[in-house]
Write a structure and sequence with these properties.
Elements lengths: L5 E4 L12 H13 L5 E4 L11 H15 L4 E5 L5 H13 L4 E5 L8 H13 L5 E5 L1 H4 L5 H7 L5 E6 L3 H10 L5 E4 L5 H6 L4 E4 L2 H16 L3 H20 L8 H9 L16 H11 L3
Length: 293
């Protein structure tokens, strides 16, 4: 399965009552594919506020995205959790709906051992024919999938890659030792180009909601050997990459990017509690940041 180089972890649009805004979801999918050049979309991932979505909402989002995207891009369903049997159930239901793959986060809160994490992902992989992207994000999960365990998992045929947020060092170690067809993606926008430089495959991005087309130009320039152009585009994009998360103090994802999308005319609504929208200072910061787009 080829998910492409630029994968957008899509926000979930809400209306003013906090319900999914289906009209805006349709428009957002079109925009991310046609204007921001996403090769694939992650639906109901962290950026999609998966912790506050019900199973019914997630499954309807998966079905809706598959139907709306058609053949234009791949749909990757966020079906991972810290409950193995629940992750298996959601993955199997997503498979029935026609998604192209699933993203499985490292189990959070219960802090499994490396062997426990291996068996968790192995059990899910054995329950489905879908291609699987692992998702290691220790800043959120506390437990971190080690290089050794990731490489063990890479031997399972339908575990085809990982979204790695631990460090560029870990990405480098994975690239140097993983099977040739195992794809390593960065989950940190600011590391997109450095990840390509050490042999990684691409980026699972938040910033691509607003600068995806330029990110695609950066990726293509690097792949075509035009490193100078790629580096210049990286430098241009870097303040946006950092600003969406620092804003000026750390602001939980996706609060900043949702507000930025609203400034660009996309009625994606706010975030569900316990997340909150940007305060007055953060609003001013994002307004200024958008002038760089």
């Amino acid at each position: 399965m080829e998910f492409g180089r630029l994968v957008t972890a899509m926000v979930t649009p809400f209306d003013d009552q906090g319900r999914i805004n289906w009209d805006e979801t349709a428009q957002l999918i079109d925009y991310l594919i046609e204007e921001q050049k996403s090769d694939a979309l992650v639906i109901a991932g962290t950026t999609g506020e998966s912790p506050t979505l019900t199973d019914d909402e997630k499954l309807e989002l998966f079905r809706f995205a598959v139907d709306k995207a058609g053949e234009r891009c791949k749909i990757i369903a966020g079906t991972g959790s810290n409950n193995t049997s629940h992750s298996i159930h959601l993955t199997q239901e997503a498979e029935k709906l026609g998604v192209d793959g699933v993203l499985l986060v490292v189990p959070y809160y219960n802090k499994p051992s490396q062997e426990g994490m291996f068996r968790h992902f192995e059990a899910i992989a054995n329950s489905t024919q879908l291609p699987i992207l692992l998702y290691n994000v220790p800043s959120r999960t506390i437990a971190s999938l080690s290089v050794k365990t990731t490489l063990r998992l890479a031997e399972i045929p339908n575990i085809i890659g990982t979204k790695e947020c631990a460090s560029l060092e870990q990405i480098t170690l994975l690239v140097s030792s993983a099977p040739a067809d195992f794809k390593v993606y960065s989950g940190d926008d600011s590391s997109a180009l450095p990840t390509l430089a050490v042999g990684g495959y691409g980026i699972v991005s938040v910033a691509s909601h607003i600068v995806g087309s330029t990110m695609k130009d950066m990726i293509n320039a690097y792949l075509e050997g035009d490193v100078r152009t790629a580096a210049n585009l990286h430098l241009k994009l870097f303040p946006i990459f950092k600003g969406l998360f620092e804003c000026p103090d750390p602001l939980p994802n996706p609060s900043a990017v949702k507000y930025a999308l609203q400034l660009l005319g996309h009625d994606v609504g706010g975030v569900r509690l316990p997340l909150i929208g940007p305060n007055e200072d953060e609003v001013a910061f994002i307004n200024n940041l958008i002038t760089l787009v």
